[in-house]
Amino acid sequence: MGIAKRDIKSIDAQFNDIRMNTSTYSGMMDTAMSVRAQQQMLAERENSWQHAADHLATLQRLEAKPYFARIDFQERPDQKAETIYIGLASFTDTPDHFLVYDWRAPISSIYYEGELGKVSYQTPAGKQTVNVTLKRQFQIAEGVIVTLYDTQATVTDQMLLAALSNHASTKMKSIVATIQKTQNQIIRNTTADLLFVQGAAGSGKTAAVLQRVAWLLYRYRGNLTAGQVILFSPNQLFNDYIDQVLPELGEHNMVQMTYFQYLNRRVPRLKVADLRERFEQVTDGIDQKANRLLTSLAFFKATTRYAKRLGTDGYLRFKNLRFGNQIFASKDKLRSIYYGFNATYKLGNRLDGTEERLRRMLNSRLGSELHAKWVEERVQNLSKEELDNLLQNRPREFASDEAEYKFLAKQILIKELMPVKRAIDHHRWLNINAQYLHLLRVVPHLVKLDQWNLTAAEWSQYAERQIAAFKQRRISAAGVSIYLYLYDLLTGKWGDRKMRFVFVDEVQDYDPFQLAYLKYCFPRAKFTLLGDLNQAIFTHENSRSLLSQLSTMFDQDKTQVVQLTKSYRSTAPITDFTKQILVDGEKIEAFQRQGPQPKLVEVADQAAGVKAVQTALTAAQAAQEKVAVIGKSLADSEEITRALKQAGVQVTLVRTENQRLVDGVMVVPSYLAKGLEFDAVIVWDANQQKYAGDAERQLLYTICSRAMHTLTLISVGQPSYLLAKIDPKLYEKVIER
Ligand SMILES: Nc1ncnc2c1ncn2[C@@H]1O[C@H](COP(=O)(O)OP(=O)(O)OP(=O)(O)O)[C@@H](O)[C@H]1O
């Protein structure tokens, strides 16, 4: 590393010594060549320095914790048992002599795949079966073995128990030493184009998928970079929570953003409904029905058909292409060019053909304007500085005055016409805004409204409202996906072909249109979708049909569904309690880790409620637990924050997803708590008014399932009826009246 660093310094120094010779063409050429050579050398050295730095960091990690498992196994009964050690990365003393195997190496799979006895694993050469005679787990800290466990089939995984008993932190950790068998199947899957992981809250979906990214980067090293993997997460807060896992595993982070960040950056001039608006929006019956239509796969297909037909039906909307104050090509002119091509032309050909024509028009304009009066005036009035600028490093001798004039006039015109060229290149002559509004208006001709329980009058009422909002630059969450899909279809954007793996966490909060659009945006990628249909907090009833709709988008043979039913996050008493909030939560299995029963505190009024929160907070803090008070809406969260602050309790309200997770007590609205976990959760407040109906069931489940060790629900007045059905033996009820 030292050498690489020294090299970089000396190249930098040489760089400063390069003499700039720009007085002649050949001098310029030489200078450019030597700059280029130095740049290349520098890039190479930086690369090798980066490589060495990564390697050193890995070795330092290995020094503190060289391995976490030992496996003894026989390949054949008559053979002596072999011993291997497994760690975060491989370590060899001589080439091919492995003292420690990387956890991602094929052989390491036997550690995750089974107990003692016959275990099979995949190698590049096919399936291999071995007889495992010893499986030993180690906890090592700073190079010293703290504990070790030998696995016996009937005993619970002690190391997992130890890992899960730890306190929560503001950053998620890797689970490399304790990956479970079904999680391992997700991590090492190479065959599915669509891998759908349906898992209970806390079953390790996120944990497994981050390990999967690290595994893929290892498996396809040399061919896959972290920039070719993208993870869509539920909110920005969650991004912050998981951003240490891959670096801890010695890998660079993948591209990470929320679906709406991905869209928003493409429509900077529109205001898209944000997370809170989407969560708290009160919608009437028409809105709900229209939304169901607009977010469906059927509507995705209808949009595709609509765009396709625009190639011939004459309904494409254009914008005048301007050159300063004048019109360079009018809407009518554009229309006649676009629709002037042969009827067999597809959208893409029309687009290319039109652009080609516009570029030719631009070139002839360049010629025809050469002697325009305004150009002549500009040339005559050029200041010395402007002249230098235009001539740059060009030799100043011209064959004639006319040649000099032509050169200067052309330079001026190229500069002036640049905005027109850019407008052509960026398809600004297409009026996508008007087209989107047109699409909304013609929906009754595209789909059968009665199948969506809508009348023509209802639709037009809905569409007019959306159009009015759009004119004030506001667009709904459903609208922005449609808008961008339409944009892509019309401008011939075919998605990002470099992206190889797409991960979508909390997929139950996506609608079929969004997923179909993602698939369109990443046409070559393999998809891993993770979700819990029981935690659908945005899409509610739609989420149930998501899986069946998804299956139509991908090749059946290349679709795999993996179920994770065991919940690791919470203690057994908490999991047993929370799963009864659900209608069909029986399938969820608790991991046998003990802890106190959840507590439901019913109080008479607000003041008593705040006191009850304080009591729960004091208990949690005494146990040094990381605690969060979770409110249903932002207003609820603000209310309890204010009350606690007045009572002298220090708390941080997490108001938007752009904040950071902090130490100390946090108050979090439910929709921002997605995917996160805390030692102790206090639910504020779980009364009947706030969680009144079945629509809130999944939300209440999501909130309660954030708790790892203790869960307290405070109810001001009558508790939610969603809690009434829960077996009273599973929790402690306190009534303070
Ligand atoms: N194999 C494992 N070893 C150690 N810890 C694990 C394992 N699997 C899961 N966990 C822990 O369980 C907790 C929950 O995991 P994770 O957040 O990945 O679950 P999830 O399925 O994404 O949950 P949710 O859907 O509720 O957000 C985390 O603290 C994670 O570290």
UniProtKB/TrEMBL annotation:
Q: Mind listing the UniProt keywords for this protein, alphabetically?
A: ATP-binding, Helicase, Hydrolase, Nucleotide-binding
Q: Where are the transmembrane segments?
A: none
Write out the residues that bind ATP. Answer: G199, A200, A201, G202, S203, G204, K205, T206
Q: Which InterPro entries match?
A: DNA_helicase_UvrD/REP, HelD_bacillota, P-loop_NTPase, UvrD-like_ATP-bd, UvrD-like_helicase_C
Q: Name one Pfam family in it.
A: UvrD-helicase
For this protein, what is any one GO molecular function term? ATP binding
Report whether Nucleotide-binding shows up as a keyword of the record: yes
Domain named UvrD-like helicase ATP-binding: residues? 178-571
Origin superkingdom? Bacteria
Q: Give the protein name, as stated in the record.
A: ATP-binding domain-containing protein
